[in-house]
Amino acid sequence: MSAPAPAPAPAPAPSDVLKFPCSACGAKLAFAPGSRALECGYCGHKEDIPQTEAEVREIALESAFDVARKKRGLGVERKTFTCQGCGALTEVEPQVTSFSCTFCGQPAVLVTEARPDRLQPESLLPFRVGRDRALAEFRGWIQSLWFRPNALRRQALADEIRGSYLPFWTFDAFTRSYYTGERGDHYYTERTVTGSDGKSRPERVRHTRWTSVSGSHEQLFDDVLVPASPSAPTHLVEGLYPYPTKELVPYKPDYLAGMAAEDYRVELKDAWGTAQGTMDSAIREACRRRIGGDEQRNIRVRTSYHNRTFKLCLLPVWIATYRFRQKPYRFCVNGVTGRVHGEAPWSVAKIAAVVALIIAIVVTIALLASGG
Questions:
Q1: Considering only CA atoms, which of 211, 212, 215 is closest in space to residue 178?
Q2: What are the residue boundaries of the structural domains of the chain, listed by start?
């Protein structure tokens, strides 16, 4: 009879939960973006976050489900708000009494118990971009948009902007692939054709010579990112890439002071499936290039994965909505690089004018070519 599975690690006891009072005035400290310190919003006192010698660990995927000894929860007292609109699970500091969803703006959120059973992140990237710079980057982004209403630059007003840590899984793997396919090389011959005017003229004819090709390809993948929460739309999050994941620091609850943190809802197994799909696409493209030629067909690739590792990390994002003509649009700012990605209305009039101009140019060229 097999031994019973070990029980999950217990949630942090109340004495293990960290609080961050100011040693000068007793108010709460908050993380200061761009530093390794907590800062008091009342008296300005700063306290350095103790740095650990521990390195950010990569965990073997094969042992992913042997997690009984892994730390649970965020290690700091938090309150969870569950959005009734998009389902986001956002963890905030316990003194927060009202909260609208960071991701969809839905005001109807329910207070639920924090989930201390969730795996604790191994690492995070601290905020470097503060709130004021995030708003400045948003204004610069609005000014740079093309094919948008002219009034957008004057009227776009950002609502409250929030700093939040979003969860991501990262995956590493060494892959070895074997491929087969056919390489197509183009060559040309000439033939004589008779036009509608009765005149004969030469014409080039393209042909393709096909050759069977096979070979092998090795590729190392490092820190393939997979968002661990569907709360923030994928197109918004991926528009913030890249994140400097080589600069991840070991997780410490101190960095969450004054910030929200989204709980992960994409499980490890599903995240690996997404990462593998990303790797497979990159491998297939690499094999296509190795086959070479002007075109390829009947490509088949078989891949084995080795040294698969993963980690759960938190990445910083400023999230807000802005309103234009009473309609909300979302935007995000990378909390490390300041890169902005968001939604914006299109100007139908500007697009129609450009299309009309292109048509006019094409017609003019055709008339000149025909001697009209």
A1: 215
A2: 52-180+213-351
